[in-house]
Design a protein that fits this description.
heterodimer, A: alpha/beta, 3-stranded antiparallel sheet, B: alpha/beta, 6-stranded mixed sheet, binds thiamine diphosphate, binds iron/sulfur cluster, binds magnesium ion
Amino acid sequence: MTEMTKVETTLKDWETDQEVRWCPGCGDYAILKAVQRTMPQLGADPSNTAFISGIGCSSRFPYYMETYGFHTIHGRAPAVATGVKLANPDLDVWIITGDGDALSIGGNHTMHLLRRNLDVQFMLFNNEIYGLTKGQYSPTSREGTHSPSTPYGSVDRPASPCAFALGAGARFVARGIDVHKGLPDVLKAAHAHKGTSFIEIFQNCIVYNKDVFDEFAAKKTAADTQLHLLDGEPMLFAKGEKGISLNHDTLQMEVVDVTDGDWEAAGVIVHDVKNRSVAHMLVEMQFGEFPMALGVLYDDPRPTFEAAVVAQNEASSVGKAPDLQALLNKGQTWTVSENGADGPEL
Amino acid sequence: MATAVNQDKPTNEHPSGGENVVVRFAGDSGDGMQLTGGQFTLSTALAGNDLATFPDFPAEIRAPQGTLFGVSAFQINFGSRAIETAGDQPDVLIAMNPAALKTNVQEVRPGGLVIADEGEFGKRNLDKAHYDSNPLEDGSLAKWQLLKLDISQLTLDAVKEFGLGNKEALRCKNMWTLGLSLWMFERERDPVIDWLNTKFAKLPDVAKANIAALNAGHAYGETAELSGEGLGTGHLPTHRVAAAPATPGVYRTVTGAEAISQGLVAGAQLAGLPMFFGGYPITPASAILHHLSRLKEFGVTTFQAEDEIAAITAAIGASYAGSLGITSSSGPGIALKGEAMGLAIMTELPLVIVNSQRGGPSTGLPTKTEQSDLYQAVYGRNGDAPMPVISARSPGDAFECAIEAVRIAVQYMTPVMLLTDGYIANAAEPWKIPDVSSLEPFPVKFLEKKPESGLLPYSRDEKLARPWIKPGTPGLMHRIGGIEKAIDTGHIEYGPANHQTMTEIRRDKVLGVADSIADQDVALGKEGGKLAVVGWGSTFGPIHQAVRKAIDAGKDVAHIHIRNIWPMPKNMSDLLKSYDRVIVPEMNTGQLKTILRDQFLVDAMPVNKVSGQPFTITEIEAAIEEALS
Ligand SMILES: Cc1ncc(C[n+]2csc(CCOP(=O)(O)OP(=O)(O)O)c2C)c(N)n1
Ligand code: SF4
Ligand SMILES: [Mg+2]
């Protein structure tokens, strides 16, 4: 997207008159509010904004945003968005998707979206379940998840959305929690990033997968279980008493104790959003042994797909007139007059 | 027909009035037969003949050399009268090896000329072609006039001075053969020489060697070297087929894939829209993606997607954003696009889907032609999902059909399926280049201001089309999607009465396309009578020829060719019912026949062929004969 002119709006300007149809208490409400609240702060223009979604509870989102919206088909939002952005690179496009939508049926498109680096915000509402189809396990469900289709527990291992994104070539990877007050900051960073901004949002499906994220999302224990990443800041948690450091022998991260706030002495790493190697370690950090890494894990822009396409379209058109008649007449032609062929016109 | 090679033998099957010759080049897939055929076609077109071609190549990219399944052939029918098919039986076969001879010779007209490269008829190649003895020596080709030439050696001699390796030198064999063919039919060599110089601009020695081979083949025909050998007469028969009478104008040869690409570009220009083309490679549809990728100056953006689903959904996204979205594939890919077509129908966005049909089901016959995706086009989606379908009958016709598909898509806010097939996509025919200024524009009007009555994204114009609103337009924000829409507002709506009405609106909108198309005409013969032969797509040629011959023989037959498959022209019912009998030749097991029976309650009888090869005129003649008896 080219630099947009900031527009003044209020939260009300982003709300539609449509009745919101998620289950009461669903984490989707909190995400919707966070987005609606953030948009005025971005100076975004509703007329120039499009929300494009696939299918799932989460994908109902566009109906509730007073912007342009396209509720497409299951898994295909990235492909639709690609066409939209190539046709109009100036639109501010947000993709809304779920764990099933983005990683099962649409896994292929998600991979190619990230590799191409289309300039969109990609919000993956991860509730580790298929909400809309009434609770079957999903590609992010943990092993042993009991669901209507896995009454004895699922046996396949889950995918890690952020690791997948980074592996596919993402240049922006972030994590947030639906009800978390830090979510708007993540959205702002995503919006500021030119290229595909991949955001995994832990979303509570209170009907089919209630509170699965509690072990790190619950407010009471959050201090010990969440690592809030800030560019240029040390990776500290547990009120600064613990940090993340790199073990130089094993080349792996480890949790270290910080005494008297001397994190440097403890070897705690300073977060650098442009460090791809560290990003790979952050997305691989297993919760339990480690806290859950939240915020912007990685942010290092690269030229976008649509910019490259537009540039090539323009470069290869230089000096060529769009002369249809000339195109049709191209190559070897011959003229037939009233009395037969006149021979070639080379 | 008075053919070049056999003027005195009474085996004529073709009608009088002008003459034509069918030549088939056949060789190993590495022998460059398609190039030879293509260049011969160009020279023939430049000589003012009408022509039709049929390239027939193996599915394998590089089949093992010398094998039967590695044979690649190119047939051209040209003449001084209108030519509508690639010809039933070759008059001349040029066989570059035993496998090419074996797979093709039986189709050559008895008494026709067979030219074989005897240099390739060694034991190994004979074994690969499963010949127990050398057919050039054992008398088994007595039905035909046989001319054995050591084309391999003659080529090596001709290009010796350029110091190419043996393998490279032998690659010039096809040009030697082309030179001889050009001489036989008194065709100009200059266009081929120009083409070689351009093609090998960076390899001047290769260009020179090829030109030398071309000239040598030509000289071979001309000189006395043939005396005492080959034909009983001692001479190669040469013949100049007179130019075909044609409407005055500027002509070129065009393949279906080129014509569709250019027609789509024309359509976008007439609509005043930039074009977005999403594709995923598949035979025989890829050529359209390749052509359009080179036309960026026409406001064309091409996107090679990760699969066919992404290709169509990206095209839908582009249409949503205000471009003309187009996607193209062949049967298997079209199947993948099915769900997304429903989305375009539901969201009422313009979209053109080009299906270059090939033999199916599944992977089927990727390089062979068939018309078996008609059900898929008309009925192949979930829900009541009506979509206009039109079909091209020839490469030149594909240009107009592409424009027509674009017009319908943007005027009715609907996806449109354009059917073509492998035969049309690859075949070349002379084409009278249209005068662009005579094409009627149909500029698109986007909704850009909120109407006084308020914004209703699913309100309708007199064609029942909804307004096209580009995201980015100030103040017209709205949401669309695949869930059923409320009348006018387009909000999500599951109500029973609403769904009933919306389904009917979508149906009526598409049926209403019939108001904008011409009445069905009779391609040949008169309205009403004993028999109508009804066809669609690339069977036009053989049906037309067969009907012409039947009419010449005094029979009461007419040819009806349907371009608009869905909806059909409004007079179709009356027209069909004006004949006692209706037969429907198709390269499938009876799909148009089913639609005609269903729509019009006529007793349409099928005539089917699903061998991967086009109908021959003779086959249609036999069907006419049977229907009349
Ligand atoms: C082609 C297709 N297959 C299956 C479905 C049914 N379906 C709708 S949503 C969904 C899964 C949604 O899960 P997720 O993406 O995690 O979204 P959530 O509802 O959890 O937000 C499925 C399987 C469909 N709509 N389309
Ligand atoms: S099923 Fe779950 S995800 Fe869907 S709306 Fe209800 S709570 Fe939310
Ligand atoms: Mg889910």
